[in-house]
Design brief:
By secondary structure, this protein is mainly β. It has strands spanning about 25-30, 35-40, 45-50, 55-60, 70-75, 80-85, 90-95. It is globular and about 40 Å long.
Length: about 100
């Protein structure tokens, strides 16, 4: 994770530390001041603090198939994150509500 605008490294997370067998996708966003969401390419969001100190896995209710992918994560305010998804069947957007302390 990098700070903005100086791009100083804040923290680093190894995919094996959270059983993300296929690593991370490019999508990620801040959720408020102290939490972030990143995409584990299997099918889940990882909600974490800025130090990757606690990571909660949120399984997405989507059949990604072999080719599906989360294209974007956008914080909408009040703990809501828009998840832009591409699947072979087409594009869709899910809104996920992240409740403090519940991932």
């Amino acid at each position: 994770m990098l700070s903005w605008p100086d791009l100083r490294e804040i923290s680093r997370l190894d995919a094996s530390a959270i059983d993300a067998s296929y690593g991370f996708g490019l999508a990620g966003c801040w959720i408020g001041e102290a939490r972030a969401a990143v995409y584990a390419t299997e099918d889940a969001l990882i909600v974490t603090d800025e130090n990757f100190g606690s990571c909660d896995r949120i399984t997405l209710p989507i059949d990604f198939g072999d080719e599906g992918e989360v294209e974007s994560l956008t914080h909408l305010g009040a703990g809501n994150v828009a998840v832009g998804v591409w699947t072979p069947a087409g594009r869709l957007t899910l809104v996920v509500r992240i409740i403090e302390g519940h991932g």
